[in-house]
C-alpha cells in the first residue's frame, strides 16, 4: 500500500483536491492582468520570476 497526499481546497462550497505530486509551489495570488486573447474561463495571468502564469477561474470552468 502506498501513501498518497492531496492538497484540498474549497471553491464555492465544493471540496476539491489535487495530488501533491503535481504541486510545485503555493503562493499568494498577486494582481492579475486580464488578457483579451485568453478564453473566458481564464481569469488572467501574472508574472512569476519572469514566466507568465495563466490563472483559471474554476467557477466558470465548472459551469457555476
Report on this model:
This protein has one helix at residues 58-61; strands at 6-11, 14-19, 42-48, 51-56. It is mainly beta and 64 residues long. The strands form two sheets. A two-stranded antiparallel ribbon has the order 1-2. Strands 3-4 form a two-stranded antiparallel sheet. A hairpin with a 2-residue loop joins strand 3 (42-48) and strand 4 (51-56). The termini are far apart.
Write the layout of secondary structure elements.
Elements lengths: L5 E6 L2 E6 L22 E7 L2 E6 L1 H4 L3
Antiparallel strand pairs: 1-2, 3-4
Which key terms come to mind for this protein?
single chain; 64 residues; mainly beta; two-stranded antiparallel ribbon; 4 strands; globular
Using only CA atoms, what is the Rg? 14 Å
Helix segment tally: 1
Shape label: globular
* Backbone structural class: mainly beta
Q: Would you list the SSEs in sequence order as H and E?
A: EEEEH
Lateral arrangement of strands in the main beta sheet: 1-2
The averaged pLDDT comes out at 88
Task: Bin the helical content.
Answer: under 10%
Strand content: 35-45%
Q: Give unreliable regions as ranges.
A: none
- Biggest sheet descriptor: 2 strands, antiparallel
Ends distance: 37 Å
Please provide the count of β strands: 4
